[in-house]
Amino acid sequence: MSYPYIQFGNTPLWSVIKKGMKDFVENKDIQESTQREYIVG
């Protein structure tokens, strides 16, 4: 998948933030209405 922040997609910080977003969604703390790559970016 291509997104504007792809150069950061494999960095350790990106992974931590992406996991945090996943946890928020699973806990129903937030609801995503756009692709996660754009939210994290």
Describe the structure.
By secondary structure, this protein is an all-alpha fold. It has one domain. The protein has two helices and no strands. The radius of gyration is 10 Å and the shape is flat. The mean pLDDT is 88.
Compose a concise summary of this entry.
This protein is mostly helical and 41 residues long. It is built from 2 helices and no strands. The protein has one domain.
> What portion of the residues fall into strands of 2 or more residues?
under 5%
Our Rg estimate from Cα atoms comes to 10 Å
H and E string = HH
Helix proportion: 40-55%
Weakly predicted, low-confidence segments: none
Outline, from the CA principal axes?
Answer: flat
Q: How many distinct helices?
A: 2
Structural domain tally? 1
Distance between the termini: 14 Å
Alpha-beta classification:
mainly alpha
What's the rounded overall pLDDT mean? 88
Number of strands: 0
Strand count, sense and closure of the main sheet? none
Tell me the layout of helices and strands:
Blueprint lengths: L11 H15 L9 H5 L1
Q: Main attributes?
A:
flat; single chain; 41 residues; mainly alpha
